[in-house]
Amino acid sequence: MNAADFSTNRHSSDGRMTMHMASKHTDLYFNDGNIILLAGMSYFLVHQGLLARHSEVLDELMHSMDDTPTLEDHPVLALLDPSTDVAHFLKAMYDGISFVTYDSEGFTTLSGLLRMLTKYKVHHLRNDILRGLSNYWPTTLTQWDTREASVTGKDGTYTPRDSLPHPIEIINLAREIDHLPLLPSAMYDLTRSTPSEAAIGFVSPFTGINVRLEYADLLTVLKGREQASRFFSTFIVNNLEGRQPSRWCLRRKDGHPVSKRTCQIAFEAITFELLRDINGIISNRTSDPLYAMAEAEQMQTRDDLLNSEVSPMKTCEHCRVEFGAVVDAAKEDFWKKLPKWFDIDVSPWG
């Protein structure tokens, strides 16, 4: 790798001017250090051996330094990276990544650090952060369900934007650091927004920057959204419309004609509710097939809290369990298809 891609040392006139105007970092400045990293208007006195141990790229840069200026009698390696990112990068190598958070507020730090760890090939720290990030943008359905539960309030309201980074940020970051396993779940997350919202992007409350997708990724998200919608429509047609009770239905032998059809009527009511998507509107989870399929099962166990009556969507235990198996299989099938729908080669997945 060419050192010129990472360092400004070869442009000594500009580098020396910046060097003399820069100020030392208040924390990452070690009196026993033996090399200075210059980034922006800050410089860091650190240890060459530690840098070389963690990063083969920095090791190569330090060995290729020529005509190197000095500052405080130490050789200077000037980097093109923002000083804030360099500070987080050095902090991670010295202190570990305990300061990293995976919420929306911490995303600027996390994303800058991941770009640095990727650029300078600090693989073990990069992998540690990616494992933490995968808890919220996972490759398995079980992890996704856990993530969804963690951002759902006690009243059932779904508010991921209050705590998690926006999926557009995750998609763009995954492209930058070339880590494809983050993409399918992030793209699915974004499909639950309207097409116009996905196209316009959003303004980060922490940076004030309008964050948007690359055009190719926007098209990919919209195509995946259509595939997910078709899957859900097919699920309703194949598994709910005209669904008959289980052969072991507890109400099959009921003498009253209406009572005998209770489970069948319940499936008809559930179909109607899914098509209206009222629960999705109330919980802020419209256009969410995984949630809607799970709701089709959950509706069968809840009472009608509004009218304090038995819900017309409650089925008997045999019908509910049989349908629950159908829902579980459909959700797994849906999840396995996500990489293909978004044209992403991820292995293993699910």
Overall 3D geometry? elongated
- Helix/sheet category: alpha/beta
Count of alpha/pi helices: 16
Largest sheet: 5 strands, mixed
**Cα end-to-end separation:** 36 Å
N to C succession of SSEs: HEEEHHEEHHHHHHHEEHHHHHH
Strand content: 5-15%
Integer-rounded radius of gyration: 27 Å
Q: What is the residue-mean pLDDT, rounded to a whole number?
A: 89
- Please bin the fraction of helical residues: 40-55%
The low-confidence runs, each spanning 5 or more residues with pLDDT under 50, are none
Q: How many beta strands in the DSSP annotation? A: 7
Query: Widest sheet: strand order?
Result: 1-3-2-5-4
Protein name: BTB domain-containing protein
Organism: Suillus subaureus
Q: Strands, helices and their partners?
A:
Blueprint: H1 12-21, E1 23-29, E2 35-39, E3 42-46, H2 48-54, H3 56-63, E4 70-71, E5 74-79, H4 83-95, H5 107-119, H6 123-133, H7 141-150, H8 167-177, H9 183-191, H10 195-200, E6 202-203, E7 210-211, H11 215-239, H12 257-260, H13 262-276, H14 278-283, H15 289-298, H16 317-341
Parallel strand pairs: 1-3, 2-5
Antiparallel strand pairs: 2-3, 4-5, 6-7
Task: Write up what this structure looks like.
The strands form two sheets. The chain has a five-stranded mixed beta sheet with strand order 1-3-2-5-4, with helices on both faces. The protein has a two-stranded antiparallel sheet with strand order 6-7. It is an alpha/beta fold. The protein has helices spanning 12-21, 48-54, 56-63, 83-95, 107-119, 123-133, 141-150, 167-177, 183-191, 195-200, 215-239, 257-260, 262-276, 278-283, 289-298, 317-341, and strands at residues 23-29, 35-39, 42-46, 70-71, 74-79, 202-203, 210-211.
